[in-house]
Description:
The structure holds 2 protein chains of 2 kinds.
Chain A: E1 2-6, E2 20-24, H1 28-38, H2 42-46, E3 57-61, E4 64-66, E5 78-83
Parallel strand pairs in A: 1-5
Antiparallel strand pairs in A: 1-2, 3-4, 3-5
Chain B: E1 3-8, E2 11-17, E3 24-30, E4 35-41, E5 49-54, E6 61-65, E7 73-74, E8 95-101, E9 110-115, E10 118-122, E11 129-131, H1 133-136, H2 141-144, E12 154-160, E13 168-173, E14 176-180, E15 188-189, E16 210-215, E17 222-227, E18 230-235, E19 256-261, E20 269-273, E21 291-294, E22 302-304, E23 322-324, E24 332-335, E25 341-344, E26 352-355, E27 361-367
Antiparallel strand pairs in B: 1-2, 1-27, 2-3, 4-5, 5-6, 6-7, 8-9, 9-10, 10-11, 12-13, 13-14, 14-15, 16-17, 17-18, 19-20, 20-21, 21-22, 23-24, 24-25, 25-26
Amino acid sequence: MGCTVRIASPLQSYTAGAARIDGRGNTLAEVLGDLEQRFPGIRFRMIDEQGRIRPHMRLFVNTDEARDLAAAVRGGDTVHVICALSGG
Amino acid sequence: MGTLWLGTRKGLFALRADARRRTWKLAGPQFLGHIIHHVVQDPRAPRTMLMAAKTGHLGPTVFRSGDRGRTWREAAQPPAFRKAADGEPPRAVERVFWLTPGHAREPGVWYAGSTPAGLFRSADGGERWEPVAGFNDHPMRSKWVLNGTPDGEFVHSILVDPRDPRHLYIGISVGGVFESTDGGADWTALNEGVAADFLPDPSAPFGHDPHCIAQHPAKPDRLYQQNHCGIYRLDRPGRRWQRIGAAMPKKIGDVGFPIVLHPADPDTAWVLPMDGQTVWPRTSVGGKPAVYRTRDAGSSWQRLDRGLPRTQAWFTVLRQAMCSDGHARTGLYFGTTGGDVWASTNAGDSWRCLARHLPEIYSVTHAS
């Protein structure tokens, strides 16, 4: 399924500066796998080696926060990659 | 006359010296906003450098330069633990903390240490990293390492014996010093004689807190250690560390993070004591920073503070943030958590400030 992926600024070094890219996949895992194919290294900065979303990353499908990578993605959805950090 | 690479909490900087080490020019930042834990030149291929980095948001990784730090490219496969089996606690690298080039006869080999305590090896110059199962999956690992402290425990001071690539030492904070004689397949604790005042059993064989371990390149049987509980020396094949910090002035104590060795003289070393009393301020003792030098393998120590602030200077210098160069008149350098860089080009006899107002300095390393 085609979707839109919004990329937060800390990850845009992987997407040549693009903040919004076209994605493919029926789950978040598939969308991120597709991203990794096109932008090598990007997935590991968001997802650890155990498949968990890193502590300062948040993934949304449209307005719903996804707690794991099994979340469904449908055609036309927007996946938001949000970086959440506090402190100086 | 070389470059000082400064890994900071907010990016990578470089200080470049003229031939006489009198004029230094600050360059950077590169990777502004990235957390740089360690930057290390490859002595086997001096154009190559590796850098351990992450950001506040993004996971940990390693960058590699093939042009002396001008440009950098990320590793294709950064250090990562193996996938956890069912029922096994999952481990993920939180930060790559330490980098060590491998043996001279193994030109592509590098080692990396992480939080949580993990050891990783690359055989291709830092492009692809594999876990060292002999440590990461050692049946004793969960006992050796004090797991789960808020900032995490980590592997540091990865030492490769210049006579034997299979002979390795590592330090774990908190865990102790460990040795492998088979290339990392198995490990044994090497902490006899080291104090561990904080442990329920201070004579335990592991659970210690080495802050920094150094092996003398010209006399590889000689190890020095700056520990949470003192300064030590060990001459192999002996197994019992001697507390050479006992010769430090009592009002200064022998707590600190870094220990730096003279590149040629195995009896000469420098430390930078910090306050380890009560709640552990970890600042310079009394707000009066000083380096201490031994020239007799720790039998005596000399205070070196000429040029350093006389009062109200509350330095903290982290374990990777002090180094020497290979110059005949030894250059010594340290960076503070307050973002200042200090240098001595006369083996510590006098000091001057090279840079101020940088971000918190994590690592100071010298490159040719």
